[in-house]
UniProtKB/TrEMBL annotation:
Annotated Histidine kinase domain residues: 143-360
Transmembrane segments: 21-41, 72-93, 99-119
Keyword ATP-binding listed: yes
Catalytic activity: ATP + protein L-histidine = ADP + protein N-phospho-L-histidine
Protein name: histidine kinase
Enzyme Commission number(s) of this protein: 2.7.13.3
Keyword annotations from UniProtKB, A to Z: ATP-binding, Kinase, Membrane, Nucleotide-binding, Phosphoprotein, Transferase, Transmembrane, Transmembrane helix, Two-component regulatory system
Amino acid sequence: MSHPNSKSKTNLATLFPFSMRDLIVTALILFVAVAFCILLQRLDPSAGFATPVFVLTVLLTSRLTTGYFWGLFSAVLGVIAVNFFFTFPYWAFNLTITGYPLSFLTFLSVSVITSALTTKTRQLDKLRMENEKIRMRADLLRSVSHDIRTPLTSIIGSTSAVLDNPDLSQEDRRSLLEDVKQEAQWLIRTVENLLSITRIGSDRTELNKQLEPVEEVLAEAVQKARKRLPDIKFSVEVPAELLMVPMDPILIEQVLSNLIENAVIHGQTTTAIHLRAEKTEDNFAAFSVRDNGQGISPALLPHLFDYSIRHASPPTGDGKRNMGLGLSVCSAVVKAHGGRLTAHNHPDGAEFIFCLPMPPADPAISTDLSEEETL
């Protein structure tokens, strides 16, 4: 049972929070308002410009800061500034000015109303984001449950057929066991994707980024893919110069594996996959997975990297035909690296391209290399 005092403290902290960001924002807005009023006063000392300027100041401060404190602070300071600096007699307080209490109430009203609306809007945005996360988790659970049920059913059916039919031929037994192996491998990759989603989706996500040569990462991904997909012809294209990219190699290899598997399953007629890595002009490392399959349906392109792809695609009755989870993992991993992932069709199939940011070039290192080459 929570203590009433702790609840009241929480409410006060929500309504009147203090942060260095809000302090800086408030100080900047007030500074600009004072400077603008001083400029206008020099141009026309008789104009009553200060009050509307500081009303706008209170409005902006209440809108751009959190809680009520800084809006109220700006309201009080604005009323004081208008009276002391920008109302005759200047540099003195005059509390007998007609309408002064009304100005004070107007400033406070603007502050309270704007702060209340801003706080309510932010709470609604936060609630909307939480609901979206809950919906995505629910969609993910439904997707995974459906995806896992089919291979498990197949594994149980195949092993039961082997155990219950001792007279099966060696060829039939081998065929059933091959099916079990393939389904088990697919389950392992699904679990790996789930672990990656959990890791990337954590609030304390920390990638194990280190400089890795792209040749080794591509070679590792292709080597694993060849074991699962012996009938697919793979080719790799890398730059002539060594390209070192900061990345979490395990996660990037999983991205490549997911894209390769997607190209085979959903390309349907895919017989060859070409992987390429290069450095772009805007200092990114671009990785490409290009296949010669049937391409991607235009209706699916907008939904490739979210969990809604199951609802956007026609049902196939096969849990393994869903590519929502694998591509969602790819998108999450690439975004966590600060990169981008895109997909498009080409005349001979489909191509997925993801770009990872490169570290800024060190001028000193470049100079040293140039001098060594000159020597």
